[in-house]
Write a structure and sequence with these properties.
- This protein is mainly α.
- The chain has one domain.
- The chain is built from three helices and no strands.
- Helix 1 packs antiparallel against helix 3.
- The radius of gyration is 17 Å and the shape is elongated.
- The two termini are about 15 Å apart.
Amino acid sequence: MTQEQLQSFFGWGAICNIVLLSVIFFIYLATRELIYRLHGRWFDGMKKETLNTLIYGAMAYYKITIYAFFIVPYIVLRFFV
């Protein structure tokens, strides 16, 4: 695999994952009350603050993973190699 192919893979992978993260965020904003009701029944009255913390924490973890595994390798291949 050439450097250009790797660079393209990491670039498109970053774009696809950022789009997916954005879609997840907007779906969450649009269906927040439904998610609260559903998870409240599943997890015995989970509070909204707890659910918000979990969801935003998961999205933050996903964003950090995108940076670590796609954006940083793309930048390294683009500018330092």
